[in-house]
Design brief:
Helix content is 19%, strand content 19%. The protein has two helices and six strands.
Length: 112
């Protein structure tokens, strides 16, 4: 156990999960740095894979998780880049192509 860690951690010493997600490098025996957000229905709704030498951004991961939670309850809307809970979302429609400002809608604050 890692000293001071207060949450559960997982490991994949045989590389089974890494292979399943396609991030295992057979030549080096290492996994690339993959992050996958999976819906309660078992659908991968977001994925990011970085080379082993490139770190990930926990704030961006949290933002993506929050956006996907919001989207689950509002399937008719989209969350634009850099969206955060409480900000405007968009309702896509053909008439808004090239005119994104017309597609924005005010949305309710995400509640936990």
């Amino acid at each position: 156990m890692l000293k001071g860690v207060k949450y559960q951690m997982g490991a994949d010493p045989a590389g089974k999960l890494s292979r399943m997600f396609g991030v295992y490098d057979e030549e080096s025996g290492l996994a690339q740095r993959g992050v996958f957000i999976i819906s309660p229905e078992g659908v991968v709704v977001s994925s990011e894979v970085n080379h082993i030498d490139v770190g990930r951004n926990a704030e961006e991961l949290l933002r993506k998780l929050q956006a996907n939670i919001y989207k689950a309850g509002h399937p008719e809307e989209v969350c634009p880049a850099k969206w955060h809970p409480g900000e405007k979302t968009m309702k896509p429609a053909p008439e808004f192509v090239g005119k994104a400002e017309g597609a924005y809608v005010q949305q309710e604050t995400l509640r936990h």
